[in-house]
Amino acid sequence: MTYRLILLLPLLLGACAAGNPWVNPQIPKDQWDRDYSACRRTADRDSGYRDDGRDGYSPTRDYERAQAKRIYDASINACMRSLGYFPAPKK
After folding, report:
1. What is the C-alpha to C-alpha distance for residues 82 and 39, in angstroms, rounded to an integer?
2. 26, 46, 28, 41: which is closest to 86 by C-alpha?
3. What are the pLDDT digits (tens) for 4-63?
4. Number of domains forming the structure of the chain
């Protein structure tokens, strides 16, 4: 669990720094971040990646990380869209 959090921490921090990339004009803005956080927690559980803790290069581990990232992104996308959000326009 700790290793997964360490792995996903940069993703989560990056998401926090970038702000919420989803909008829903029918919901108050103060609700947006709560919904986004809930979807990120769900995506974290869905991705299920577990790092074995070994250092060094491993093509299998890199593949698993890439797969976990794809699952994480798809889960957030599905969750936010199910709540009526759509991606914020690029500035």
Report:
1. 10
2. 26
3. 545 445 554 454 456 789 999 999 999 999 999 999 999 999 888 666 566 667 778 788
4. 1
For residues 52-86, b (16+ Cβ closer than 10 Å) or e, as one string? Answer: eeeeeeeeeeeebbeebeeebeebbeebbeebebe
- Kind and range of the H or E element at 22? strand 22-23
Distance CA 82, CA 87 (A): 12
Q: What is the pTM of this model?
A: 0.67
d(CA 25, CA 30): 12
Query: Closest Cα to residue 34, out of 69, 80, 82, 1?
Result: 80
Are 22 and 36 in contact by the 8 Å Cβ rule? The answer is: yes
